[in-house]
Amino acid sequence: MIVAKDLSFSVLDKVILHETGISFGDTGVVGIIGQNGAGKSTLAKAMCNLLDFSGEILINDKSLRDISGFERASLVSYCGEMTSDIDLSAGEVIEYARVDGSENSDLLSKIYEIFDIEKIKKQKISTLSGGERQRINLAASFYQESAAIILDEPTNFLDPLHIDMLEKAIVLFSKNHLVIVISHNINFISNIAGSIIGLKNGEVIFNDEVSKLLSEGYLDKIFEREFKYFCNEDGVFIK
User: Fold this and answer.
1) Contact (Cβ atoms closer than 8 angstroms) between residue 198 and residue 216
2) Torsion angle of alpha carbons 40, 46, 50, 54, nearest 10°?
3) Using CB atoms within 10 A of its CB, is residue 38 exposed (0-12), middle (13-18) or buried (19+)?
């Protein structure tokens, strides 16, 4: 379980997070939504100790600040955009992701299949398109197999086919792990999340089931615009 207490973070005079309190269970999918600058990525990076925050974050009742980097990597990981051209093949990036250096051939095969990696696994990262890099980045994050994985805008650069594959991976992984998904793709996140956290101006203004987000007008409040909902036998489409 991850618990954040009185979490705050500022850059110069700009408050990004303000005394935020939130908790996450051990499994399932939790979505985080909000406008640009609402504090979504800052919250995610704080939970991985990637920035200097004030307040307290506990993982399994232990302070994040007291957890070694090696142990932290087994407990929680952050997947953002891959920005550097490292001199490795796609397959090497994925296989080196496991913190303890162990191998899990069954999981690796499943990840290769889900993210359609086989035909690009020998290519250098520098030769891949944005969408291919994103698939490699996501595949490596799942293969790391941390207890909790935070995916920051995971649908970026992905085509509809590979977004469907990502959804499959998240649902599968969330049976035994916690998956936190940050996304501006409201339809994607509402389809996969069991609950959603809505941030506005660095504070949590919604933390509940997806159905309440839609039925009680919170989505409009979070984004300060009116959404329309279209229902059919496949579910709800939000525009």
Assistant:
1) no
2) 130
3) buried
Widest distance between CA atoms in the chain: 50
Q: What is the CATH number of domain 2-218?
A: 3.40.50.300
- 43: tokens are 């919250």
- Rounded Cα distance between 64 and 115, Å, is 31
State mean pLDDT over 90-114. 91
Backbone phi and psi for residue 220, each to the nearest 5 degrees, phi listed first: -65, -40
Strands 2-11 and 14-24: antiparallel
The phi and psi torsions of 178 (rounded to 5 degrees) equal -90, 130
CB 183 within 8 A of CB 154: yes
Structure tokens at 175: 């049976």
| pTM over cut 0.90 | yes
Domain extent listing, the chain: 2-218
pLDDT of residue 83: 67
CA dist., res. 129 & res. 57, Å (int): 36
- Other CB atoms within a 10 A radius of the CB of residue 5 amount to 13
Identify the residue whose tokens are 């499994």.
Answer: 27
